[in-house]
Please model this.
Amino acid sequence: MKLTIDSFEEYKKIYDYSVSNPEAFWAEIAENFQWRKKWDTVVKWNFKEPNIRWFDGATLNITENCLDRHLDTIGDRPAIIWEPNDPEESHRVLTYKQLHEKVCQFANVLKNNGAKKGDRICIYMPMVPELAIAVLACARIGAIHSVVFGGFSAQSIADRIQDAGCTLVITADGGFRGTKEIPLKSVIDDALVQCHTVQKVIVLTRSRTPVSMIKGRDVWWEDELKKVETMGNPPCPAEEMAAEDELFILYTSGSTGKPKGVVHTCAGYMVYTGYTFANVFNYQPGEIYFCTADIGWITGHSYIVYGPLSQGATSLMFEGIPTWPDAGRFWDIVQKYQVNILYTAPTAIRSLMSFGLEPLEGKDLSSLKKLGSVGEPINEEAWHWYDEHIGKRKCPIVDTWWQTENGGIMISPIANVTPTKPGYATLPLPGVQPVIVDENGNEIAGNGVSGNLCIKFPWPGMLRTTYGDHERCRTTYFATYPDMYFTGDGCLRDEDGYYRITGRVDDVLNVSGHRIGTAEVENAINMHSSVVESAVVGYPHDIKGQGVYAFVVCPELHDDADLTRKDIVMTVSRIIGPIAKPDKIQFVSGLPKTRSGKIMRRILRKIAEGDTSNLGDTTTLLDPAVVEEIKAGAL
Model:
């Protein structure tokens, strides 16, 4: 079975086949990939433990599918085009042959530095081609990569390194984002003070910032490459991996304070990302594909690196930000490289909308054929702006819904196939079986209904566990509703059977498309010496989608409340990273609590949203008067 679908009628036929005979369907899709040994069984699963195994008995290496198998046919085609932060700096193009050679070289560097199959390797790098090379080199030798976004703090990195027991770190002296220089190596140095498992740190030269290099631990990327070259650049055969061997760990926020390491395995993830990339974007050979995400997030893993490269696509990487040196940067890139597919976030679209149409003047966007949106539901106003001013009403918009835990896109239009509807993720992809349930887990059948979104049958790209804590995986995703994967999202299904994601139903915020646990932010705020207690909720934000609103109890609040606010923001930035800092901080004398001590977030959420007309019954609160005080002081 080919990966792409050509018509809506074909979609309906294939979807019906995929849910009535999922094993046969996925076996046919898997035939499009290269295996060392074929599988004995397609899928074995139960959601109680949970225990999910795809393509058991098979062996493979994902980098052979992303690189080696393309060398004879499209070896001279660009695999990665890299656009630097500074438009005056030269861009780089790596063909499949060149990328393959660089991945093999760096895989040998890793081996020379003691890395082996099963080791966990932390990667904290800027958006340069070497980040993709490092990721693929880990996969080639069977090491498990854990990429940490370059905006996280030293404490956040330390938590992730300690949780995974990483033995090696790959970083750079620094990185660039717009006008900012990010001191990556010094952040790593701060993190490693409390990480005793790390034996080696490989440092790429990027910003030429002076850094501390510790003898015996820290080595330069460039020096290590020279050692490999003096050995005559020996080939680096890809490690043979079992289907369920771990490929990577990626940390994501949950409703408790501690981030959880989502584990993805080799075979199922490969099949699912390759299939969804080819299908959703209706990818045609030779098209230039530009995903604006960072490889530090799941979107970058699945749809800058593994998905596109497994399909022989040309993937464009961008180091900078959409508004520097001006708000026309994306459109300059589209014009410069004649981009055919643009996949970006609603946050970026809303931010660019705020600059008006002037940055678009004189920009040739005629090469664009397909547009995509990722990270959160795209609001209708942004959808129409994207459609009219970027796609010129001739490019289908694929509004994709999926999560770190899913591995790849789950519900989405298929470009040029599915009739779209603004604000709707539309229909599930073949092989994906969503259900809407009520609070008690009863399935709500029919159309024109809403409830909690679950998935009732496994798919190859789904998480297998949370690293080192399988019970947490079970309780978070599989214990809420028996025999179902619970997404944590609310959802409605309209009269046409189209799905619209309505937002998180747990204590997790979606800020600029990134999940941030309220407990994590509260823990960081409470670290500030003046803070006794805090409660964090989301509120509607014009650019970010959701903003972070913190209600903070500070009995010793001094005259300068603004300074204390800045101190709290700095505390959160130091402990988690700037991505989690509160947008609004309201100082309060107390929080609305039940007599058992539970904070009534429902009330705080309504106040943060500016809806104080109906706060429900407050008589059960320990101190109902506190609600009036909070209402009066709302920002």
